[in-house]
Amino acid sequence: MSHSIIRVQKMNGQAIKGIQIHNQREKESETNPDIRKEDMHLNYDLIHGEKQVDYKKEIQQVISENVKSDKKIRKDAVLVSEFLITSDTSFFSDLSPTEQKRYFETTKDFLAKRYGEQNLIYATVHNDEKTPHMHVGVVPVTEDGRLSAKDVVGNRMQLVKL
Fold this sequence. Notes:
The chain has 162 residues and is of the alpha+beta class.
Protein backbone atom coordinates (compact mmCIF):
# COMPACT_ATOMS: atom_id res chain seq x y z
CA MET A 1 0.00 0.00 0.00
CA SER A 2 1.33 3.42 -0.95
CA HIS A 3 1.64 6.40 1.38
CA SER A 4 2.06 10.08 0.71
CA ILE A 5 5.46 11.39 1.68
CA ILE A 6 6.09 14.93 2.83
CA ARG A 7 9.48 16.28 3.80
CA VAL A 8 10.25 19.81 5.00
CA GLN A 9 13.52 21.66 4.67
CA LYS A 10 14.20 25.12 6.06
CA MET A 11 16.27 27.42 3.83
CA ASN A 12 18.02 30.68 4.43
CA GLY A 13 19.02 33.24 1.81
CA GLN A 14 22.11 31.36 0.64
CA ALA A 15 20.13 28.28 -0.42
CA ILE A 16 17.42 30.12 -2.37
CA LYS A 17 19.26 30.51 -5.69
CA GLY A 18 20.33 26.86 -5.67
CA ILE A 19 16.79 25.57 -5.19
CA GLN A 20 15.55 27.96 -7.90
CA ILE A 21 18.13 26.58 -10.34
CA HIS A 22 17.14 23.00 -9.45
CA ASN A 23 13.38 23.52 -9.53
CA GLN A 24 13.30 25.50 -12.76
CA ARG A 25 16.05 23.41 -14.40
CA GLU A 26 18.06 26.54 -15.20
CA LYS A 27 21.31 24.57 -15.50
CA GLU A 28 22.16 20.98 -16.24
CA SER A 29 22.51 19.07 -12.98
CA GLU A 30 25.90 17.57 -12.26
CA THR A 31 24.75 15.91 -9.05
CA ASN A 32 21.38 14.37 -9.93
CA PRO A 33 21.72 11.56 -12.49
CA ASP A 34 17.98 10.78 -12.23
CA ILE A 35 16.96 13.86 -14.25
CA ARG A 36 15.94 12.90 -17.78
CA LYS A 37 16.48 15.84 -20.14
CA GLU A 38 14.01 14.44 -22.68
CA ASP A 39 11.19 14.67 -20.09
CA MET A 40 11.88 18.18 -18.76
CA HIS A 41 8.98 19.52 -20.82
CA LEU A 42 6.65 17.51 -18.54
CA ASN A 43 7.53 19.68 -15.51
CA TYR A 44 5.21 22.51 -14.48
CA ASP A 45 4.55 24.99 -11.70
CA LEU A 46 1.03 25.14 -10.27
CA ILE A 47 1.47 28.81 -9.33
CA HIS A 48 3.50 30.25 -12.22
CA GLY A 49 2.82 27.84 -15.07
CA GLU A 50 5.67 27.89 -17.58
CA LYS A 51 7.00 31.27 -16.45
CA GLN A 52 10.47 31.37 -14.85
CA VAL A 53 10.47 33.41 -11.65
CA ASP A 54 13.11 34.94 -9.40
CA TYR A 55 12.56 33.27 -6.03
CA LYS A 56 14.41 35.99 -4.09
CA LYS A 57 12.18 38.71 -5.58
CA GLU A 58 9.05 36.68 -4.84
CA ILE A 59 10.18 36.09 -1.25
CA GLN A 60 11.01 39.76 -0.71
CA GLN A 61 7.58 40.72 -2.03
CA VAL A 62 5.84 38.34 0.40
CA ILE A 63 7.96 39.63 3.27
CA SER A 64 7.33 43.30 2.43
CA GLU A 65 3.57 42.72 2.09
CA ASN A 66 2.98 40.34 5.01
CA VAL A 67 5.68 40.76 7.67
CA LYS A 68 4.54 43.51 10.07
CA SER A 69 7.54 43.53 12.40
CA ASP A 70 9.85 46.57 12.39
CA LYS A 71 12.76 44.33 13.39
CA LYS A 72 15.44 43.81 10.77
CA ILE A 73 15.43 40.28 9.35
CA ARG A 74 18.52 38.36 10.40
CA LYS A 75 21.00 37.26 7.72
CA ASP A 76 20.59 33.63 8.78
CA ALA A 77 16.79 33.75 9.01
CA VAL A 78 14.77 30.97 7.41
CA LEU A 79 13.15 32.63 4.39
CA VAL A 80 11.52 29.55 2.88
CA SER A 81 10.30 26.24 4.19
CA GLU A 82 10.32 23.86 1.25
CA PHE A 83 7.93 20.94 1.26
CA LEU A 84 8.71 17.94 -0.92
CA ILE A 85 5.56 15.97 -1.75
CA THR A 86 5.73 12.51 -3.30
CA SER A 87 4.87 8.83 -2.92
CA ASP A 88 6.32 5.61 -4.25
CA THR A 89 6.65 4.91 -7.98
CA SER A 90 3.84 2.34 -8.03
CA PHE A 91 1.38 4.94 -6.67
CA PHE A 92 2.05 7.24 -9.62
CA SER A 93 2.12 4.44 -12.19
CA ASP A 94 -1.55 3.74 -11.35
CA LEU A 95 -2.58 7.37 -11.94
CA SER A 96 -3.40 9.02 -15.24
CA PRO A 97 -1.66 12.37 -15.90
CA THR A 98 -4.93 14.14 -15.01
CA GLU A 99 -5.26 12.25 -11.71
CA GLN A 100 -1.60 12.92 -10.90
CA LYS A 101 -2.08 16.65 -11.51
CA ARG A 102 -5.17 16.61 -9.30
CA TYR A 103 -3.13 14.90 -6.53
CA PHE A 104 -0.54 17.68 -6.64
CA GLU A 105 -3.17 20.45 -6.95
CA THR A 106 -5.02 19.08 -3.91
CA THR A 107 -1.78 18.98 -1.93
CA LYS A 108 -0.89 22.54 -2.96
CA ASP A 109 -4.37 23.73 -1.96
CA PHE A 110 -4.00 21.98 1.43
CA LEU A 111 -0.67 23.73 2.06
CA ALA A 112 -2.10 27.07 0.87
CA LYS A 113 -5.00 26.75 3.31
CA ARG A 114 -2.69 25.72 6.15
CA TYR A 115 0.10 28.28 5.60
CA GLY A 116 -1.66 31.02 3.59
CA GLU A 117 -1.99 31.23 -0.19
CA GLN A 118 -0.16 34.57 -0.11
CA ASN A 119 2.90 32.86 1.43
CA LEU A 120 3.36 30.22 -1.31
CA ILE A 121 6.21 31.09 -3.69
CA TYR A 122 6.24 28.07 -5.99
CA ALA A 123 4.68 24.63 -6.43
CA THR A 124 6.91 22.92 -8.98
CA VAL A 125 6.08 19.41 -10.17
CA HIS A 126 8.95 17.32 -11.53
CA ASN A 127 8.00 14.54 -13.92
CA ASP A 128 11.50 14.20 -15.34
CA GLU A 129 12.87 12.04 -12.53
CA LYS A 130 12.24 8.42 -11.51
CA THR A 131 9.32 9.29 -9.21
CA PRO A 132 7.08 12.34 -9.75
CA HIS A 133 7.24 14.83 -6.91
CA MET A 134 6.42 18.44 -6.09
CA HIS A 135 8.48 21.15 -4.40
CA VAL A 136 6.39 23.80 -2.61
CA GLY A 137 8.05 26.90 -1.17
CA VAL A 138 6.37 28.65 1.75
CA VAL A 139 7.57 31.91 3.30
CA PRO A 140 6.98 31.20 7.02
CA VAL A 141 4.93 34.24 8.06
CA THR A 142 2.95 33.89 11.29
CA GLU A 143 -0.64 35.08 11.68
CA ASP A 144 0.61 38.08 13.67
CA GLY A 145 3.02 39.07 10.89
CA ARG A 146 6.37 37.69 12.04
CA LEU A 147 8.87 35.67 10.00
CA SER A 148 9.27 32.45 11.99
CA ALA A 149 9.70 28.97 10.51
CA LYS A 150 9.75 27.57 14.05
CA ASP A 151 6.25 28.89 14.77
CA VAL A 152 4.77 28.27 11.32
CA VAL A 153 6.09 24.81 10.45
CA GLY A 154 6.37 23.70 14.04
CA ASN A 155 8.24 20.96 15.82
CA ARG A 156 8.65 17.26 15.17
CA MET A 157 5.25 16.30 16.59
CA GLN A 158 3.44 18.89 14.47
CA LEU A 159 5.21 17.51 11.40
CA VAL A 160 4.19 13.95 12.31
CA LYS A 161 0.56 15.14 12.45
CA LEU A 162 0.97 16.84 9.08
